[in-house]
Design a protein that fits this description.
Distance between the termini of chain C: 37 Å
CATH class of the largest domain in chain A: Mainly Alpha
Helix content of chain C: over 70%
Strand order of the largest sheet of chain C: 1-2
Number of domains of chain C: 2
Shape of chain A: globular
Structural class of chain C: mainly alpha
CATH topology of the largest domain in chain C: MetI-like fold
Oligomer: heterotrimer
CATH superfamily of the largest domain in chain A: MetI-like
Order of helices and strands of chain A: HHHHHHHHHHHH
Number of strands of chain A: 0
CATH architecture of the largest domain in chain A: Orthogonal Bundle
Radius of gyration of chain A: 23 Å
Strand content of chain C: under 5%
Order of helices and strands of chain C: HHEEHHHHHHHHHH
Number of strands of chain C: 2
Helix content of chain A: over 70%
CATH class of the largest domain in chain C: Mainly Alpha
CATH architecture of the largest domain in chain C: Orthogonal Bundle
Number of helices of chain A: 12
Number of helices of chain C: 12
Distance between the termini of chain A: 34 Å
Number of domains of chain A: 2
Largest sheet of chain C: 2 strands, antiparallel
Structural class of chain A: mainly alpha
Strand content of chain A: under 5%
CATH topology of the largest domain in chain A: MetI-like fold
Chains: A mainly alpha (276), B alpha/beta (423), C mainly alpha (313)
Chain lengths: 276, 423, 313
């Protein structure tokens, strides 16, 4: 065991503080803007005011509330479906032997590299023809698609680590196939599935370009797109306060989720990287 | 063998689970959708920007009461940014969406929506109602190809606001050059909107019209001439003088207002919203004077900018007659007065300027009416948004433009814009 | 038989008939399991891209629906011969190269901190995941408001002059966009690099220390070379992401003002703002081709390096 000198400790403390500041300053800035009144907005200082006016305004705003519901619902459903489809594919890719593995993997990679702008035009046209424009499925479907590669890669990496022989062993010991699956495989696969779900959810929650172009009313507009609807006191005034408050509201759940599940997220991203 | 069937049954369970989820998602998606019907009364959906003063809410409530059950107007809010409003309306109308009945149209959308066949013309008696008693400027914005396509509702124009306590009232033939020279001497700024957005087109259009020039004529022909270079000269002169406002190349209406309120400028070109807004600062409103938009050239009258909202009827409205009725009610003289009182939005009907509500809201109501009457509409052409983008590109950034040869560059860009080419 | 089943699928030498039966059933199951994912991906990306290509061969403006006509490659000609397209490509490349380079350096630093820190790894890990989890648009607003001429806090900081207004100049705006983008995506890079760091065996470091190598020498001679595949993978993903950048410039300089227009914003302006579906689709396809080019270049580089590695080891 090395002994750490005080100098080392000091350097590491500084290093860690720098990293923490780096990560948190923009977040604190937007939080501080959200608590300012319109008069304080122009003063350029951190946390110069603590009024909750902006929050009252946005929570009384139907558009914002509808957008919150849309964001939560659409992201959740997209995550659910994406994980189910990706789990099936990852299972096949990691456990079964068949020609075409490479094709599917590179295809998934290609989808991950797609520029969304290249297909929003077509999707707009397609959705308008089938009637999916401005609906939940209209957003869920593109979100699923763009998260599938990430989910497949992450889940494949996790599934490859699972000792599947344990399942056979459990059955030899007298468990039914279903029991073996439930008691042995599920707990081992759960962390990977969970991690992939978090990564997928963050992606869907974050999206702007699809939400902006494929919706046009409260029916399906998500929060990132709804940020455009806030007004100030007149049609020309910049609603910095309202936008900041909305930004905080939409960020807090993610921060909480990230804090609680940080280990899983890190594991998921690093596993995907190494095996991928 | 056992393995395979296990895997298969597991797979089947998973697949069916997924399908159930997918099905319910589709069902949920189809079910969730703005329910836009009333209880028996025909729903008329009015898509218009979010007016924070409550004037539109009141108009909608009044008209619903008057309708006595025939129809019920729903006030559906559009994004704050004018560009995004247009994008949304165009997308939906292009998608032949029948849930839009009335469109709160920015004055520059008329030709575009009319040419594409997305709005209905106002003909016969309806046309009379739409035109009656309206000021020149707004009337020009609802006309295209000899027909009337919307009923003017509110208007807007920019005035020259100045600090009464620091500068003298400008003379009637005050020009931009004179103003810039004066402000440069005193070292205080002139607030304008010169960010790369529609507001820049507004300014340039007024400068060009003030020089007697045009960008595109009634038939869509490109008529760019030397007045474009004159406009560029003025813009550049301001940008490189001591009177240039900080942040000029990203300033929009609100930054201009804030700049004026912060004491750094003696002059401001802006819409009327800055006046009620100034009440928030103690004693500030009393220091504000107002005058007509400055001239481009000494001998020509100035052509102030023209904004506003017209109400059009969507071609895909399910009950067009009711929609026309609703629009007429919303745009009535009384509601224009309320829009002035609560929203600070100038009326389009001449007589309404005599209304005491309007006089109270605008101490400058005579100047306002005169300006709107003399205002220069922006080019009336279906390709307006392309042309506006071309203008914005050619006149930005303010310090960086070169007036020499700008006429040709602008004409070239506008040609390409009108042809649907990249520019 | 039971041994073969117990050790899983990769078996050796059961009788031929049985193998092909099993293999066939396995293949069938595999394709059944993969099918939904594959179908979704094909439908939602394959079909629209094909439709976009079809649209790009037409002159099609939604505002003039009667003027639709087939024009072959005319739209491509228009785009490729316009200075706007090329200057946008250059702007996009500037943003891409600058942000990926910064992310690499910063990400490596953060990865090293996370790997080697003698305490506080938990808080650091949690902290850097926050930029990753924040909605991109929110982050862009935060940065935009920070540099806002009237309300930003940056101008109160000690080393920054009051007259510097980055959002009013092209260079300054690009800087803010790059900073915002780097801030947001460095965690992802850091995590990819952390995974690579974990692969470097400690014994090599020990041995080198015994031989008298300094920290810096060890970093450049041992760590970096062994991390090469991980670095290349990280670079590949991030470069592709950076080239497709949209949300951040859209918020910080709407409309691509002050020469900050990236190729995606150009596509958006033409497709959504001007509703010129023909021209906009041509731009979209060209963007797609650029992305493929970049990916191909990287994969070739990655392929050779992996082969070299295998050859060495």
């Amino acid at each position: 065991m090395e002994q750490h000198t005080n100098k080392e400790r000091l350097l590491w403390t500084i290093g860690i503080l720098v990293v923490l500041l780096y990560a948190l300053i923009p977040v604190m800035w937007i939080a501080s803007l959200s608590f300012k009144t319109p008069a304080e907005v122009g003063d350029g200082k951190f946390f110069s005011g603590f009024s909750t006016d902006n929050y009252e305004v946005i929570f009384n705003d139907d558009t914002f509330l509808a957008a919150l519901i849309n964001s939560i619902g659409i992201a959740s459903i997209a995550t659910l479906i994406s994980i189910v489809l990706a789990a099936m594919a990852a299972y096949a890719l990691s456990r079964l032997d068949f020609a075409g593995k490479a094709v599917i993997l590179s295809g998934a990679l290609a989808v991950a590299m797609f520029p969304p702008i290249s297909i929003v035009g077509s999707l707009f046209d397609m959705w308008r023809a089938i009637g999916l424009y401005d609906t939940w499925p209209g957003l869920i479907i593109p979100y699923m698609t763009f998260t599938l590669p990430l989910a497949i890669y992450t889940l494949s990496a996790f599934f490859r680590e699972i000792p599947w022989e344990l399942e056979q062993a459990a059955q030899v010991d007298g468990a039914t196939p279903f029991q073996a699956f439930r008691k042995v495989i599920v707990p081992l696969a759960a962390p990977g599935v969970f991690t992939a779900a978090i990564l997928v959810f963050i992606f869907a929650w974050n999206d702007f370009i699809f939400a902006n172009t494929l919706t046009s009313t409260d029916a399906a507009r998500t929060v990132p797109a709804a940020l455009a609807f806030f007004t100030g006191a007149s049609q020309f005034e910049q609603p910095i306060g309202a936008i900041s408050a909305a930004a905080v509201v939409v960020t807090v759940p993610i921060i909480i989720m990230v804090l609680i599940f940080q280990r899983r997220i890190v594991a998921g991203l690093t596993a995907g990287a190494v095996k991928g | 063998m056992k393995r395979r069937s296990e895997r298969s049954s597991r797979a089947i369970r998973v697949v069916s689970g997924a399908l159930i989820v997918l099905a319910s998602a589709l069902a949920a998606g189809c079910g969730v959708g703005g329910d836009e019907g009333g209880s028996g009364a025909r729903a008329i959906n009015w898509y218009v920007f979010n007016e924070p003063g409550g004037a539109f809410d009141k108009a909608v409530a009044d008209c619903n009461k008057e309708a006595g059950g025939k129809y019920k107007i729903n006030y559906v809010k559009l994004p704050t940014d004018a560009n995004q409003q247009r994008e949304l309306i165009v997308r939906r109308l292009a998608a032949e969406d029948d849930s839009i009945d009335l469109v709160g149209m920015d004055v520059i959308w008329t030709a575009e929506l009319a040419e594409a066949g997305w709005i209905l013309p106002w003909e016969g008696e309806r046309r009379q109602v739409a035109e009656e008693g309206k000021l020149e400027g707004p009337l020009k914005t609802v006309e295209y190809n000899g027909k009337i396509w919307a009923i003017p509702f509110t208007s807007n124009t920019q005035l020259l606001w100045y600090r009464k306590d620091r500068v003298d009232p400008p003379p009637d033939d005050f020009t931009w050059d004179e103003m810039i020279d004066q402000a440069s001497e005193s070292g205080k700024a002139i607030e304008v909107q010169a960010a790369q957005y529609e507001g820049l087109t507004v300014w340039i259009n007024s400068l060009i019209a003030g020089a007697g020039g045009q960008i595109v004529d009634q038939n869509g022909e490109v008529k760019v001439d030397a007045s474009a270079e004159r406009a560029a000269e003025i813009e550049k002169k301001l940008a490189t003088s001591a009177a240039a406002p900080p942040g000029m190349s990203t300033n929009r209406e609100d930054q201009a207002r804030l700049g004026f309120e912060s004491d750094r400028s003696d002059y401001q070109l802006n819409y009327t919203f800055i006046y009620p807004s100034a009440e928030a600062i103690k004693g500030f409103q009393d220091k504000i004077g107002w005058a007509r938009y400055p001239r481009t050239d000494k001998g020509e009258e100035s052509r102030p900018p023209l904004g506003g909202i017209n109400i059009g009827v969507s071609a895909y409205a399910k009950a067009p007659d009711l929609a026309f009725d609703a629009a007429e009610c919303l745009a009535s003289d009384e509601h224009q007065a309320i829009a002035a009182e609560l929203g600070g939005l100038p009326p389009t009907t001449e007589a309404v300027y005599e209304d005491e509500k309007v006089q109270k809201a605008f101490p400058f109501s005579d100047l306002l009416r005169e300006s709107i009457d003399a205002a220069a509409p922006r080019p009336v052409t279906p390709a307006y948004s392309d042309i506006s983008l071309a203008i914005q590109k050619s006149f930005h950034p303010p310090e960086g433009i070169d007036p020499n040869g700008l006429e040709d560059t602008l004409r070239d860009r506008i040609d390409k814009a009108g042809q649907g080419e990249i520019f | 038989m039971s041994t073969a089943e117990a050790t899983g699928t990769r078996t050796a030498a059961p009788p031929k008939g049985k193998v092909s039966d099993r293999k066939k059933a396995e293949r069938k199951l595999a394709w059944m399991l993969c099918a939904p994912a594959v179908i979704v991906m094909l439908l939602v990306t394959g079909y629209p891209i094909a439709y976009a290509f079809y649209l790009s061969l037409q002159k099609f403006d939604l505002r003039f629906p009667d003027d639709k006509e087939f024009v072959g490659l005319a739209n491509y000609g228009d785009v490729l011969s316009s200075s706007t397209w090329w200057s946008d490509v250059i702007t996009t490349l500037i943003i891409t190269v600058a942000s990926v380079a910064l992310e690499l350096v910063l990400g490596m630093a953060i990865a090293l901190v996370m790997h080697r820190a003698i305490f506080g790894r938990g808080p650091v890990r949690a902290a850097i995941l926050i930029p990753y989890g924040i909605v991109t648009v929110v982050a862009a607003f935060a940065w935009k408001f920070a540099f806002d001429p009237t309300s930003g806090f940056v101008f109160g900081l000690p080393l920054i002059s009051d007259t510097w207004q980055p959002l009013n100049t092209k260079g300054g705006s690009l800087l803010v966009i790059i900073l915002a983008e780097v801030w947001k995506t460095t965690p992802f890079m850091a995590l990819l690099l952390l995974a690579g760091l974990a692969l470097v065996p400690d014994e090599l470091h020990e041995a080198a220390k015994v031989d008298g190598a300094s920290t810096i020498q060890r970093f450049f001679r041992i760590t970096l070379p062994l991390m090469r595949p991980a670095i290349l993978v990280a670079l590949l993903f991030r470069t592709l992401d950076a080239f497709r950048i949209f949300d951040t410039p859209f918020i910080i300089q709407p409309g691509g003002a002050l020469g900050t227009e990236t190729v995606s914003i150009l596509g958006y302006n033409i497709l959504i703002n001007r509703v010129n579906l023909g021209l906009g689709s041509a731009v979209s396809i060209l963007i797609f081709i650029c992305v493929i080019l970049i990916a191909t270049l990287f994969v070739k580089g990655l392929g050779t390096s992996t082969a070299q590695q295998r050859g060495e080891v």
